[in-house]
Write a structure and sequence with these properties.
By secondary structure, this protein is α+β, with helices and mostly antiparallel strands. It is 25% helix and 34% strand. It is built from eleven helices and 28 strands. It has a six-stranded antiparallel sheet with strand order 18-19-20-27-22-25, with no helix packed on it. Strands 4-7-5-6-10 form a five-stranded mixed β-barrel. A four-stranded mixed sheet has the order 12-14-16-17, covered by helices on one side. Helix 2 crosses helix 5 and helix 2 crosses helix 6.
């Protein structure tokens, strides 16, 4: 998804680094710094979360320039968001003295955990506090130096993960055993709270953290009653200041409600009071610990060649909707426990089945017997959409034995190649 969006934006990536396990922001930032310093010694890097909204881009660029000036002087610079309400869902930082050699930047006197409402109100009244945006600008070498002093174990793990990494087209896959040794900790805790080089640049940039549902409601267009309705499948009566989102086409009906968030997707429905939206992250973690697979398996699964999503599943069968983007090609593969039936809905499919190649048009289908070597690809201009029906005794994703793969994924060296592929 990241690669597709970069291509769409006309920005070819230098590298998209894939973490084999989640380890929070400190290992990610340190790994990025090591990579940047290795390829561009002396370079300045920016760490920018993907779920933020910035409305005032002119001021943002000005703030960025001030942050770069401070980074050149050897500071680890964060953007301090000018507060406008006693928000309990954000961390805060307290401003220190001005930095003479970096006009517009201040030293960070202290980082502060998420406060209660009363404490947050006191912060605002004092005029000494900013929201901690989680955006940073710094020399890669400065971050490495401070991290080596404050958390050398993480730096060592990240170096090992990079030295054992492998290239996969536009992706850099970190070495899993090495990266797994890194502690799971944020860059704030691991580095920023311990360094004497922390600086802040005040940023009144129309910023919003879109990582919480109440923030998404605030960014959305609303009706006269303050309701934001996304997806077009909601009907509300006597309902105010609510966020309704239907991603699965299901009709959502609200009667006599106030200050609620209701989100309906293919695999789950969320209902919560808006003032408890910051608790969703911890709730998801509890769901994960309880074994709910919805927390780790998204409805739409992205692959290098396109996407798939499950439509139905039961004893001995599984139904998928598969989209293969133009130029996409699935691996040459076979299955030990299932057969498959494909029906083309839109676009055209080039199918390899055993020793033959077949072109399928909309409303045409093909059967792939159990154990038959096969491949699906889309060499055409339009996206290919098809419905796949799997039948068998086991229908897990690990029942894919790859013979060949364009994207560098693991193949079975013992698997036989089809005669059609061998001939080509």
């Amino acid at each position: 998804m990241v690669l597709d969006q970069l291509v769409e934006a006309g920005t070819p990536p230098g590298a998209i680094v894939l973490e084999p396990v989640a380890r929070n922001t400190a290992p990610a930032a340190i790994t990025a710094a090591l990579l940047v310093e290795q390829e561009h010694p002396g370079a300045i890097m920016a760490l920018l979360p993907s779920d933020h909204v910035i409305r005032d881009m002119v001021t943002y660029r000005e703030v960025f320039d001030r942050a770069i000036d401070a980074a050149v002087q050897g500071y680890l610079v964060t953007f301090g968001i000018v507060v406008d309400r006693p928000e309990v869902g954000f961390g805060y930082l307290r401003r220190g003295e001005a930095i003479k050699e970096a006009p517009g930047a201040l030293r960070v006197a202290a980082f502060v955990e998420k406060p209660d409402v009363l404490t947050a109100s006191k912060y605002i009244s004092s005029g000494e506090y900013f929201w901690n945006s989680g955006m940073f600008v710094m020399k890669a070498a400065t971050l490495i130096e401070e991290a080596t002093r404050l958390c050398p174990d993480i730096v060592s793990a990240c170096r090992g993960a990079l030295s054992g990494s492998t290239r996969d087209l536009d992706f850099l896959r970190l070495h899993q055993p090495a990266f797994s040794r890194a502690r799971s900790i944020s860059i704030d805790y691991a580095v920023m709270e311990g360094t004497e080089r922390a600086a802040v640049v005040p940023a009144d940039i129309g910023w919003s953290d879109a990582g919480a549902w109440h923030s998404v409601w605030g960014l959305s267009d609303k009706d006269m009653d303050g309701n934001a309705v996304i997806g077009g499948r909601s009907y509300l009566e006597g309902t105010t200041n609510c966020y309704f989102r239907s991603e699965d086409g299901r009709l959502l009906v609200g009667l006599g409600l106030n200050d609620l968030t209701v989100v309906s997707t293919r695999d789950a429905v969320l209902v919560l009071p808006n003032d408890r939206a910051p608790e969703v992250g911890k709730l998801v973690e509890r769901l994960r610990q309880a074994g709910h697979e919805e927390t780790v398996a998204p409805p739409v699964v992205h692959r290098p060649w396109g996407t798939y999503e499950d439509l139905d599943q039961g004893a001995g069968f599984r139904v998928k909707r598969i989209v293969v983007k133009s130029g996409g090609q699935l691996s040459l593969q076979y299955h030990r426990h299932r057969s498959e039936h494909w029906v083309v809905v839109a676009g055209k499919a080039l199918v390899t089945r055993g020793g033959e190649e077949i072109v399928l048009h909309p409303n045409e289908s093909i059967h792939i017997p159990l154990g038959e070597t096969h491949r699906l690809e889309n060499p055409y201009d339009e996206p290919l959409i098809l419905i796949e029906v799997q039948c068998g005794t086991y229908l897990g994703e690990d029942d894919i034995i790859r013979v060949e793969d364009r994207y560098g994924r693991s193949v079975d060296p013992e698997a036989p190649k089809s005669s059609a592929i061998a001939a080509r």
